[in-house]
From TrEMBL:
Coiled coil spans: none
MF-aspect GO terms: dGTPase activity
A single GO BP: dGTP catabolic process
InterPro entries in UniProt: dGTPase-like, HD/PDEase_dom, HD_domain
Keywords from the UniProt entry: Hydrolase
One of the Pfam families matching this protein, by short name: HD
Domain HD/PDEase residue range list: 45-159
Name this polypeptide is given: HD superfamily phosphohydrolase
Highest taxon in the source lineage: Bacteria
Keyword Nucleus part of the UniProt annotation: no
Length: 290
């Protein structure tokens, strides 16, 4: 199949990757917004976990990662729940890893497993997703997942251009099976963009406001039995429909600016980036050379 990605361009996708994309469990990600609840107040921020997951796979492919690591990149978010990290805010999970705790369970989906078995791939290889260092490498380092959501989110909100993205991608290099940059200029650019993303987008007034409001609504609905935790295993639209049976969600969202939520808090993961750079055949962190 032909797939056109907003930031990486056009690709022909075949074989195991195409079949995995077509499974029900992966298609569900089309209904889960990458930015969580922010699309309710800003419909233009409507990119999904589906787009991000394929994007991570394509980035790993561009970096010449193995076929196995491309598959890992594709499926790394299949256990994300409705509204992405909203359930973490509701349950006060600071590491925002609720979806990670469900990963193995979702990974054992029968249809997904049938595809992997068809291609003689062992599902157990993908359980420890952090073993794939191009895909996942601990903060404050770079990883394909971290790079894709940063570029994709900032592009979606109009803070970077595709020309800037292509320039940055030209500065990526694989050393010892992890992503590093070829210049201090590339590292400083990404660090500044990542800091903006965390402070002004993740922690911005609009994003925090709608997530605080949705946290209050969801907690109330859970308490009253209107929704159950398992409803988060569906998608955004399923959860909205259940909430709307007893709460006028659209009306509450339209009145968000008048609601007293200033003193409310949401627990968000602390994120800081310190990219590694290849300097005279040595890998150094940006903080070590600047």
């Amino acid at each position: 199949m032909k797939y056109i990605d907003k930031i990486y361009g056009e690709f022909e996708i075949t074989g195991v990757i195409e079949e995995l994309i077509n499974t029900r469990v992966f298609q569900r990600l089309k209904g889960i917004h990458q930015g969580g609840a922010i699309f309710l107040v800003n419909p233009e921020i409507n990119h999904t976990r589906f787009e991000h997951s394929i994007g991570v796979m394509l980035l790993i492919k561009k970096l010449r990662g193995s076929s196995e690591e491309q598959i890992a990149g594709l499926i790394h978010d299949i256990s994300h729940t409705a509204f992405s990290h909203l359930i973490d805010y509701v349950l006060e999970i600071e590491e925002e890893d609720y979806h990670e705790k469900r990963f193995e369970e979702v990974l054992r989906d029968n249809e997904l497993n049938a595809v992997l078995k068809k291609y003689q791939l062992d599902i157990n290889k993908f359980i420890e997703i952090e073993n794939y260092q191009i895909l996942e490498y601990p903060l404050p380092n770079l990883s394909a997942d971290r790079i894709d959501y940063t570029l994709r989110d900032l592009f979606q909100i109009g803070k970077i251009t595709r020309k800037e993205i292509l320039w940055f991608l030209s500065g990526l290099k694989i050393v010892d099976n992890r992503i590093v940059l070829i210049s201090e200029e590339h590292a400083k650019w990404f660090q500044s963009k990542y800091e903006f993303l965390v402070a002004e987008y993740f922690g911005g007034k609009q994003n925090k406001g709608v997530n605080i409001l949705m946290k209050k609504i969801v907690k109330d609905c859970l308490t009253k039995g209107i929704i159950q935790e398992e409803d988060f295993y569906q998608d955004d639209f399923y959860l909205i429909d259940k909430i709307n049976r007893s709460v006028n969600l659209k009306k509450m969202i339209s009145e968000i600016n008048s609601l007293k939520i200033e003193n409310e808090k949401i627990t968000q993961k602390k994120r800081k980036i310190d990219p590694e750079i290849l300097v005279d055949n040595r890998v150094l962190k940006l903080s070590e050379i600047s």
